[in-house]
Amino acid sequence: TPLLGDGFTFISGKFDQLQHAQPLTAIISAFDRYFDEVSGSGAECIDVTKNAILEATGDCCGVLTDFFPSLGQIVGSHCVIPAQIGPKEAQHRFEYVFRLMVRTIAKLSKPVVFFLDDLQWADAYSLHLITTLVTDKAIQNLTFIGCFRDDEVDNTHPLGSTLYEIRTRSVAITKIKVNNIIKEDINALISDTFHLSDSFTASLTDIVHQKTNGNIFCILQFLQSLCDGGLLQWSSVSNSWEFKNSSIEAEFFPHDKVRILVRRILHLPEKTQYALKLMSCVGASCLESTLMLFLDENIAINVKKKEMTNIDDKPSQIRKQRNDLLLFFKFAVHEGLIKEEGANYRFSHDHIQFAAYSLIPEDEKILWHLQIGQNVWENASEREKDKVIFIAVDQMNYALGLLESDGQKENLAKLNLRAGEKAMSLSTFSSSALYFDSGIQILGKHQWENNYELSLHLHNYYAEAEYCNGNFSAVGQAAGVILSKAESPSHKVRAYFILIKALCAQNRLDEALNIGIKVLTQLGKQPPSEFSDVPAIYANFNKTASIFKDTTDFFLNFKIMEDSDALIAMNFLGELLLPTYFLNQDIGLWLVDHMLQLSFVHGVNKDSACALAGFSAMLFGLGDLDGSKNVGRMALRLQDELDTQESLPRVCFIVYSGMLSRTEPLKEVSEKFLHAYKVGMQTGDIQLAMSNAYWYLVDNFISGQLHLAALKKRLEVFGEQMV
Boundaries of each Orc1-like AAA ATPase domain copy (predicted)? Predict the structure, then answer.
């Protein structure tokens, strides 16, 4: 539970082995509980937190409420719906705004201690997000504490790689190894706990140390078993705790932690055991609302009968049965095996979960998971389904090999598609790729013949997720499958687009350009043959330039582009501008000119402003300074008119690094670059954000607006944001 005190905040979370595929579980739950605590801390605390976060994040606050629902209760309706941008850009935006949020929390209560347990089970994106936090030098008041089992982590483990990366970025790491406790400390623990003198408890300590070898978990469980068995008990006669060493020494106590707990669980009522086994299947913790979706006696009955459908009980009978099971489950809370934390239940220790899970016969475990997943999904309301999608799909994915009918496979593949889309919306691409790949594997080798639309969606999303993961070989393979199986050119467009982006990211610009030209040809936007007619390209370019002469408002009254083919063509042309700039500027002339021709015919969109900016840069390079200035100002006016944030950094960078840098006051130009940098960070376009930051520093150096010390500090800040 978060602790809000005078001058400090303690925020904690815990990773779960069985919820590894569910992205950011520990981090989201930790901060969500923190905002819950803020909501219950009075109007003044709520107002201070709300105002500080809104001031720091601006229009991007809505990005945070998508991840942390409890924050939405604090900021209310003040959040703007985030602009729709690409998945990779959305991930960059979230990381940037998340860091702004943590900086704000750290300023509100100093220091912030952020504790995460069981890092060995953290998902890849959580480890990345932790790295961005602890290496952000702008977060001055954060202490991060991570706990992990070092016998499960080596240099090849993702956590080992993360720790190495953090060290290479000059962040000090203090490692504290927690060993078994020595006999003297065991004696002090027993003496303090039972209010007995340390000389009196020395004999008991010898037995405890012998049976537990100083493992603190085993010590506590052994003492608990002594109390439960009446070998260590309170005496109303002597008004103190009493024990008999001979009886305790004869007491059998297994050294294996799981066996210790199995023995303890087996002493509980059968229905309590059953409820614990059910919860052990979903992980170390579970919301009560989710637990009630699968707290069902019929699961065990169905498993025994090998039936995958729920028994047709009346709703009233089902509710009564679940409420009865919940009472038995809460008996485990009373026994200390489960912790109740508000609306959430958590096993008091991972080994308790493992012990409960071990009581399920090995040949039945997969069926338990399948039944739990089906119950969760079928019993959830439409409003709840988005919240339980990961739990439901993860449980059902355990049983991929048991699905026999095509209908079952198709339904689970669709659920994996939905889970993958949800993970993509959370910018957790490693998890989303796993879901999409699972959907593909479920459908099998005849999927394109039997489930064409579903297969097309799964492969397209999988390619996009792996592009965001930087796994370009997987992108090529997925795109290759789509291009060989898709039934029409329009069904291939998305795969071509992501393939071009992947090739550009690998600096394979020639291949990207060739594919782009091929797609434009298929769309009916036939480029000049081999681009060999250079005079014709320049003639058309100059003809377009003459239209813009002496005007800066040519496009302002144009309609918004709606034609789907034109929008696709504009998207591809815009993506090809970068490789043509480095490879062949003659082709670049044709591209920007063709984008403007499409705008003349079909109307304008965000790519039209970028095309105008590119046209201005081309004129500048050809020596037409007046034309470049006019078209550059036209690009800025169209950008303002369209008010599309995601294109602003590109337009500002191209225009103000060209002709307008010579005609406008440097102070004004540097302010434009700084604004474009901020918008680029907020829209996740880090590359263009840093390009604008570079020119901001250059202009300030040339103009002398900042002293060298201040300039060096700004450079360090931008560098931290770039990594």
Answer: 9-145
